[in-house]
Amino acid sequence: xxxxxxxxxxxxxxxxxxxxxxxxxxxxxxxxxxxxxxxxxxxxxxxxxxxxxxxxxxxxxxxxxxxxxxxxxxxxxxxxxxxxxxxxxxxxxxxxxxxxxxxxxxxxxxxxxxxxxxxxxxxxxxxxxxxxxxxxxxxxxxxxxxxxxxxxxxxxxxxxxxxxxxxxxxxxxxxxxxxxxxxxxxxxxxxxxxxxxxxxxxxxxxxxxxxxxxxxxxxxxxxxxxxxxxxxxxxxxxxxxxxxxxx
Length: 247
Hints:
This protein has 247 residues and is mainly alpha-helical. Helices cover 51% and strands 5% of the residues.
């Protein structure tokens, strides 16, 4: 099911440690903040432009989608969220299905083809039918088995877990994507904020105010980190204003 994130129904998620490497310490709210230690001080005050080549993916687009891979001139765009203005996948199902068949055929003859794995993960996220999130996780795992340190594959698996509702696993993967490639920071931290804010909404609705307040602060911290990197990053500033009003 495609995740609907209307601006007034934002949310948040449980604390966890980062995937791989040294565990990240929880903050005073019991949540694990995004890992940004690899940025030089000057970079906190700079605006990171949209990325132009595969080395700098994933790249969040203005419509809220994420280009996770560019292979053979084809942009694989995943759409883990919509505020109701963007409808479904960028491509028609017939084209996505054809690309899925092509890349699955490649894997049958070359099971170690990383590009086919990451293409399939993005395509299944993009198509977003029942069961597609599980397929996206499977192909992301295959990509990571081939290259365990690839930030694109880690980010794609994070989005796949988000679609499947596996919030803790998604947060682990987004943390890892940032550690593997700091150019993933805006997109990954934005996604973390969306997960935290979703959990906040769920806890608030369940009348668990103390836990909800902690998740709200975690969401705000994540979105503030994104704004520090890029004040004009899609709808982050607007989201923050709504969340500030809910404190």
